[in-house]
Amino acid sequence: PGKKVLIVYAHQEPKSFNGSLLKIAVEELTKQGCSVTVSDLYAMQFEPRATRNDIVGHLHNPEAFNYGVETWEAYKRGGLSKDLVEEQKKVQEADLLIFQFPLFWFSMPAILKGWMDRVLVQGFAYDLSKAYDGGLLQDKLSLFSFTTGGGQEMYSNEGIGGDIRYVLWPMQHGIMHFCGVKVLNPHICYAPERVSEEKRKEMLTAWTQRLKTLWKEEPIDCSPEWYFK
């Protein structure tokens, strides 16, 4: 109880299956006494492009623009754009980050990737000497909850898509673990558009049930073995 949760949500349609998963998470976690904040990226018209508009005031090196260097310098002097500062504040306050989205091309939608690119800047989320277990966002948990177009058998070692964990490597390991965030097991709803209404209801119930005991879960072992063994 009293935990803070940020849900970063990337779907265009509130009546979608992803929309239902979001609604359940907000209701269930609020019922537990958590305070829940949602960043609804499409509704916010969140800008996914990393540009010089992200820096307010002077550039560190106006001769040759380097986004990584400029945002790092801007972060240190409090010169990042307002939308970034707001998202960073939400991340800073959260005990748990839930990312809710449909899988696009073995990855997250561009708007969500843009959130990662722009919000998790050097100095805020990591430093070159402080990454992975030493990342700057320690003591936080993350959970990737997403839907797929293909069925579960497609995302297996024997399937055409390969093990779903390969897909999770860049997201869970390359972003979250890099920033020091602990990672809970992903929540994957396979092919909700292709299954019966009854099966969809079962998927929603399973999500509700999982959320009830979420805080008792142990994070995954953040090592390459988890993904590639």
TrEMBL record:
Its main location: cytoplasm. GO terms for molecular function: dihydronicotinamide riboside quinone reductase activity; metal ion binding; NAD(P)H dehydrogenase (quinone) activity. Homodimer. GO terms for cellular component: cytosol. SUPFAM superfamilies: Flavoproteins. Residues 3-211 form the Flavodoxin-like fold domain. It is found in: Cytoplasm. This is Ribosyldihydronicotinamide dehydrogenase [quinone]. It holds the Pfam family Flavodoxin_2. Belongs to the NAD(P)H dehydrogenase (quinone) family. It comes from the Eukaryota. Its EC number is 1.10.5.1. The keyword Cell inner membrane does not apply. The enzyme apparently serves as a quinone reductase in connection with conjugation reactions of hydroquinones involved in detoxification pathways as well as in biosynthetic processes such as the vitamin K-dependent gamma-carboxylation of glutamate residues in prothrombin synthesis. InterPro entries: Flavodoxin_fold, Flavoprotein-like_sf, NAD(P)H_dehydrogenase_qn. Its cofactor is Zn(2+); FAD. It catalyses: 1-(beta-D-ribofuranosyl)-1,4-dihydronicotinamide + a quinone + H(+) = beta-nicotinamide D-riboside + a quinol. Keywords: Cytoplasm, FAD, Flavoprotein, Metal-binding, Oxidoreductase, Phosphoprotein, Zinc.
